[in-house]
Amino acid sequence: MDNGRFSPIRGLIRRALEEDLGPGDATTRATVTPDTPGEAILIAREKLILAGMAVFKQTFLEIDPTLIFVERYRDRDVVPEGSTVCRIRGRLTAILSGERTALNFLQRMSGIATLTRRYVEKIKGSRAKILDTRKTAPGLRWCDKVAVKTGGGQNHRFGLFDGILIKDNHIAAAGSISKAVSLAREGSAHTLRVEVEVEDLAGVSEACRAGADIILLDNMTPSEMKEAVNLIDGSALVEASGGITLDTVFEIASTGVDFISVGALTHSPEAADFSLEISRVGNNDNFTRH
After folding, report:
1. Quick one: DSSP state of residue 198?
2. Residues 56 and 140 in one domain
3. Known catalytic residue at 2
4. For residue range 201-260, what is the model confidence (pLDDT) as tens digits?
5. DSSP 154
6. Which of 26, 56, 142, 176 is the most buried (most CB within 10 A)?
7. What distance lies between CA 235 and its chain's CA centroid?
8. At 189, is the secondary structure helix, strand, or coil?
9. Structure confidence by residue, pLDDT tens digits, 141-192
10. Active-site residue, selected from the candidate residues 144, 197, 239, 258
11. 135 plus 248 within the same structural domain
């Protein structure tokens, strides 16, 4: 994670910690003396693709920058079920207070990466690439999109500012596909590609004539997609979208589309299963197993 893009995430981490801690961790404060040292281990309870370790670690470091991490796996690694991912050493109060927030980030990001990898593996050998969408958790888009890339997918536009995607409501407002594309060309930077969402072959033809850079085939059947790819004939890139699942993605990839966008990667991922367990209590020279 480069510093330029990671810096806003520190603000997110701080807000997440404030949300959870409030004025302080009442349980830990009541049960653990402030300077008690120890060690905790992070365990993967299922086979998964690891994503979000930098966010996981930074969550704890915001509480206590002296904590030490000993990592066995890195982002993008396939982690076997039951594996110890890392060890955290230092003040137990900091470890206990950061545990839930850090796991929330890690479980979501690794869940997204693991699901993305499943989609990528399903279409191996085809020309298509798996894309995410803007259907992300509010405030967590950076994390969600990093997780998709970690799982082997690619990012669609990050937000409304870095790409033009003309959808049905834009077309309705402009009056036609051709008019919407023309207005987009006139009113935007030349570096932005113009993508148009279409629902039928007539829309495909109009988008081609209008000079769209990318044509998004929305909720078409595989046979319609194949016909659309033939109609477009390389004049634009082709993206498939709409209700795509692991059961249908290979058939869609086989139609010859360039991209397949899957909203489910980020709007409904299953959290990866981790646990954080205190393994030792005591100073570094005289740990007591706990």
Report:
1. E
2. no
3. no
4. 999 999 999 999 999 999 999 999 999 999 999 999 999 999 999 999 999 999 999 999
5. B
6. 56
7. 30
8. coil
9. 999 999 999 999 999 999 999 999 999 999 999 999 999 999 999 998 888 9
10. 197
11. yes
> In the chain, which residue ranges form alpha helices assigned H by DSSP?
3-21, 26-31, 53-63, 92-122, 141-150, 168-174, 177-187, 201-210, 222-232, 249-253, 264-267
Active site residue 57: no
Q: Which helix (H) or strand (E) holds 277?
A: strand 274-281
Parent domain of 242: 121-267
Q: Has 145 been annotated as catalytic?
A: no
Is residue 226 annotated as part of the catalytic site, yes or no?
no
What token pair was written down for 23? 């004025």
Same domain, residue pair 80 and 21:
yes
- Which residue among 10, 47, 87, 100 is the active-site one? 100
pLDDT at 7 over 90: no
Distances (CA, A) of 181 to 208, 225, 228, 258: 10, 21, 19, 21
Selecting among 167, 185, 193, 226, the annotated active-site residue is 167
| Mean residue pLDDT across the chain | 94
| One-letter identity of residue 41 | I
Residue 83 shares a structural domain with residue 130: no
- Give me the CATH number covering residue 185: 3.20.20.70
Question: In this structure, are 279 and 245 located in the same domain?
Answer: no
Decide if 213 is catalytic. no
Catalytic residue among 47, 135, 185, 193: 135
**Catalytic-role residue among 132, 218, 239, 258:** 218
Give the chain's domain count: 2
Same domain for 214 and 179: yes
